From TrEMBL:
InterPro entries from the UniProt entry: Cyt_P450, Cyt_P450_B, Cyt_P450_CS, Cyt_P450_sf
CDD domains attached to this UniProt entry: cytochrome_P450
A Pfam family matched in the record: p450
Protein name (database record): Cytochrome P450
UniProt cross-references to PANTHER family, sorted A to Z: CYTOCHROME P450 YJIB-RELATED, P450, PUTATIVE (EUROFUNG)-RELATED
Family: Belongs to the cytochrome P450 family.
UniProt GO molecular function: heme binding; iron ion binding; monooxygenase activity; oxidoreductase activity, acting on paired donors, with incorporation or reduction of molecular oxygen
Keywords: Heme, Iron, Metal-binding, Monooxygenase, Oxidoreductase
Keyword Heme: yes
């Protein structure tokens, strides 16, 4: 029996108009020009080629992420830079999230809240949406140097980021002046916290490590803001969806019994959920993509979700072709620099949940008015597999 397609429900709840249009574009071929939107790419091979070519397809031109976020984060963060300046900043940040450091950071920050989560799983139902928000808030709080160490403060931190990101839709090209002011009202105080941690220079902290790596205070503030906006919701929305997929497809017990399957399960859940459903680039010089000519100034919308879902429904045993590998984290010069931190966090939380298996879903509802599709609640409890 085929399980209900809750992933489609999540997308429709989040984007009731844009999502059907996005999926309709997939049916028109690997690449299609859509009036008012731009050149839409639905093929993983074409998408990877675009992402690998940072000279032709850039993040700092019209209709790109740079146009969207520069008014909020400033000019010197990785997601709105290209060329030599981008390469120089990325080189300095390469050592920031090495696996050994991210594992230690997540252990230091998450062990206590995960112990509490394990106890709650033993005693009754747990909302994985709320739990994932607490964990994501705890990690990003550590990254920016937040002193508070309570679940309530972690929830508040996550909700601050959600307020900023929810002002963006799949169709947003740039933020309005009121949206910029709203975002700055959230991010400026967090930037002050990050700057304080930077000034302290403690190399056991992320901000202290940025100082040791030679970043200026403005660069460190901008990086902290970018990590806050791009990393928090990605992890928090993925964790409930991962476990919903495993439970719905009858694979939870299998992954719990075979820990070596966890990374495969995470990768497959990310493919299906596609936490970055679209990516934007601006054409910098004339080129041809899949036989379609593109011109400088045009907007390219990589429909990452269409590229990923073309492989089919959730299936732990289906290998990912090379062109699809971790496409949801980007490719080439802009591959997500926070990938090791995201994976360390997901693995640590997932292991706690898998240790409580078998789990059953007792209640769930889709979230509305969000950029990244997710559950509003997903309550699980221990029960028969």
């Amino acid at each position: 029996m085929t399980p209900p397609d809750w992933e489609r429900r999540l997308y429709l709840a989040a984007h009731p108009f844009a999502y059907p249009l996005l999926r309709a574009a997939a049916r028109r071929g690997p690449i299609v020009r859509v009036p008012g939107v731009g050149v839409v790419v639905n093929d993983a091979s074409l998408a990877r080629g675009i992402l690998m070519d940072g000279e032709t397809f850039r993040k700092d031109g019209p209709g790109s992420p740079g146009e969207l976020w520069t008014p909020v984060l400033g000019p010197s963060v990785l997601l709105n830079m290209e060329g030599d300046a981008h390469r120089a900043l990325r080189r300095r940040l390469t050592e920031l999230f090495v696996p050994s450091y991210t594992e230690a950071l997540c252990a230091r920050v998450l062990d206590e809240p995960l112990d509490r989560l394990a106890g709650r799983l033993s005693g009754g139902g747990v909302d994985l949406v709320d739990a994932a928000r607490v964990m994501a808030g705890a990690v990003i709080g550590e990254v920016i140097g937040l002193d508070a160490r309570t679940d309530a403060s972690y929830r508040d931190l996550f909700e601050q980021g959600e307020r900023v990101v929810s002002s963006v839709s799949l169709r947003t090209r740039r933020l309005s002046p009121p949206q910029v002011r709203k975002a700055r009202a959230v991010l400026d105080p967090l930037g002050d916290i990050a700057a304080k941690a930077y000034a302290a220079g403690d190399e056991s902290t992320v901000m202290g490590r940025m100082r040791a790596l030679g970043l200026s205070e403005d660069e460190a503030r901008g990086a902290a803001g970018a990590f806050f906006l791009t990393g928090t919701e990605t992890v928090a929305t993925l964790l409930p969806r991962l476990f919903a997929l495993l439970i719905d497809h009858g694979q939870l017990a299998r992954v719990a019994a075979e820990p070596s399957l966890l990374d495969r399960a995470v990768e497959e859940a990310m493919r299906v959920a596609t936490p970055t459903p679209v990516m934007l680039r601006s054409v910098h010089r004339p080129a041809a993509v899949g036989g379609v000519a593109v011109r400088p100034g045009e907007r390219v919308l990589i429909a990452t979700h269409n590229c990923c879902r073309a492989l089919g429904p959730f299936d732990l045993d289906r290998p990912h072709p090379p062109e699809l590998r971790r496409l949801w984290f980007g490719a080439g010069p802009h591959f997500c620099i926070g990938y090791p931190l995201a994976m360390a966090e997901i693995r640590r939380v997932a292991r706690t949940l898998l240790a409580a298996a078998p789990l059953v879903v007792t209640r769930r509802a889709a979230a509305r008015g969000v950029l990244i599709p997710t559950y509003r609640e997903l309550v699980v409890r221990k029960g028969a597999a």
